[in-house]
Amino acid sequence: MAVTNENGSASVNGHAPDRSFLTASVPQLVKQLTLDEKITLLAGKNFWETAEVPRLGIPSVKVTDGPNGARGAQFGKQTSATALPNATCLAATFSAPLAASAGHLLAAESKARGAVCLLAPTVNIQRSPLGGRAFESFSEDPTLSGLMAASYINGLQAEGVSATIKHFIGNDQEHERNGSNSIIAPRPLREVYLRPFQIAERLARPDAYMTSYNRLNGTHASENSWLQQELLRKEWGFDGLIMSDWYGTYSVSDSINAGLDLEMPGPAMWRALPLVKHSIAAHKIDPRTIDKRVTEVLNWMQKYTKLNPEVVYAPKGPEKVRDSAEERASDAKLLREIGSQGAVLLKNEGILPIKSGKVAVIGPNVKTPVVTGGGSAKLRPLWAVTPWEGLEGNKPAGVELSYAFGCHGAKFVKLLDSEFTAADGKHGFDLKFFVRGEDGELATTPALVDRWDVSELLLGEFQVRMGGPAVWVAEMSATFRPQHSGEYEFGTTLTGSGKVYVDDEVVVDASRDQQPGTAFFYAGIAEKRGTFKAEKGKTYTVRLVHDSRRPPDSEMLSQPIQISGMRLGAQPLISDDDAIAQAVAAAKAADKVVIVAGLNSDWESESYDRPDLSLPYRTDEMITAVADANPNTVVVLQAGSAVGMPWLDKVAGVVFAWYGGNETGNAIADVVYGSVNPSGRLPLSLPARKVDIAANLNFKSARTDIHYEEGIWVGYKHFNARGIAPLFPFGHGLSYTTWEYSGLEVTPPSGEPSPDKWKLEARVTVTNTGKVAGSHSVHFYTAPPAETTTSLLHPEHALQAFVKLDDVQPGESRVASVVLDKYAVSHWDERWDTWRVEQGTWAVRIGVDAQTMDGRAEFEVAHDIEWRGL
């Protein structure tokens, strides 16, 4: 039993924990370890913790997902956590200080979960906005991605929590990600996909890297010695930990010899004692290599144990929630600031900000807490402000709001709400788990009885509590007291088979005719639905009975890992025809309309990519009908990446709000009502059509290969080079004031040919020429010498630096300045296998957006410069 001593240190059974690891010599520890202990340290102990060696005082340390919040150890009964705005929203702020502040907050959240390592940030390039994890990544631009990641990592690691920069490298889509082969030529590999990691390594030194699931040019990243040893450790000088993505290890000797220090999660699949010892005996692994891997693991563990003894040596118990009034107020202020500064005003024909009038608020996302995307980034928000709550709670005195649903936008039927309770009338749902014996008979006594308040569960931790993998039946039950009479729609998705009962009537049969779905990391079936006619005032018992076995006729594909889950939803049956008609009527009765629509964690998620740019179901039709009824319409979009806007010409305004985390509704209200002057700018190009995306013809795995044939022409570089007009260009973002640039100039670069001494300063005067104060990010691009004088074709201009000016008053002028170095003028030379700077007349330009440049300040590069490393 763990207790706490008077001095506050944890103890076990009355004995203080062994803290000798804090001062131990790692080389001496390696000498004292047995071979079995060494091998044990090369894989996780469980899903989230490293292995321990109590004999030598080596503790286990805990890691946690993810990029926009520290979820903690549970996927099912998750600890409530602070949900930050997603990465594209953070990047849209173009504010390095805000990224650092996000890192500071995430460190505090990680420690509250008992973790000293956050599995973040994600810096894969948004090669296509359709990528399932695009919302986790910062941008299509490698420099923006790298600079934001560096600030994020510096903020995180300054508080003593290890960053784990990921996914290294080429996991830019989800399709067949475990076996796909990202075929990337040396120049785009270096200039586009490795560059964010390189910038972050140079400026922030992340202490851990996570290898990607896929292959890179024929070899899995976790087995790729060039990637891990030659590039990362030797060329870049990295001296931290390299871990696999979860179940992203595919070999014994190959991964160990290539440099992969830690197989995650545990218990070991590939690094089980017999397999590794057999490989050593067969001379496939040199014992000295085992020592190297163990040394890297112990160095990393010791560093973060020393920085966080109060976390590592704390008694094991429930994860903590940072929910004091002071913490809540501080966190909410930061999240609201990131959300409002990241929101991008795409279009405004005089309708925003709204200060008065009757306003119809319409849309499927209005009263739904859409805080982030899905997969590893998904978490249980400690609180969530919906758009309706934000708009209602912050409205000016002259604004009167009304509401209409609009149409369906969610992929699944809504999770059970307040109409459903546990059998005793309390909040939540009852859970029972019955184990099926080897004879196939189901036990009559449940192996586990529990309760939870969210009717969607990944069941891993429940299986652990039942004693491990087994064939079982789970029952989720609730008492249903309908608030009105009429048809209710029930829906379920699960990983086995099952049925939904209302009283004893089967309403949904998910035991046959199953089709593959996307829930539970692609392990769930496509949702099955059914209806039931309920009467107000009556009480019903609703049950989802879930057998872990799939039916014989199931078309579900086997997964690389066993995932079990079940989800039960219910909602009044609403016809989209009726909902759209009601939305049109509401729009006609209002002076102005605010539509809140977009995607959510079921549409944008790890494990699968989006098929196209469309908004869900009939959303585009609904927006068009509302705008036809009342052209004074603003559309607020919630999404992590680009969506199509076929109704764009019909509406008066568009705000791209991304996924805003806990404070979503307040951040939206700040922009809509004008208490915050929008300053967000697009960190990615919004294409008008799917076919305009550079990777469109080579996005999915084609017989395991993904050909990155677009080369360096990704995002705005592709649109500019080919003369294609995007819907909105990279860097676009309107304001409630106007901005003017003047006096762009550069200091002449040093005449030194040394790459590390080559630097210049660029500066420009920025004036607020409007009537309201605002913040503004200034984007510095470099333009190469004329095409006729260079040996290669280069992008006509590329973002190299940015700085944000905060709270600039009307009529005020400020100077924005940045220092540019060798990165701003270098390209990867495939013939010479080196970074190279070409001679000639270069220029610095200011980007109004990626297609519109303002000013030109030229400078000369008088020497050919070559370099490698950082």
UniProtKB/TrEMBL annotation:
Assigned EC number: 3.2.1.21
Assigned keywords, A-Z: Carbohydrate metabolism, Glycosidase, Hydrolase, Polysaccharide degradation
Signal sequence bounds: none
Pathway: Glycan metabolism; cellulose degradation
Keyword Nucleotide-binding applies: no
Catalytic activity: Hydrolysis of terminal, non-reducing beta-D-glucosyl residues with release of beta-D-glucose
Family statement: Belongs to the glycosyl hydrolase 3 family.
Record-given protein name: beta-glucosidase
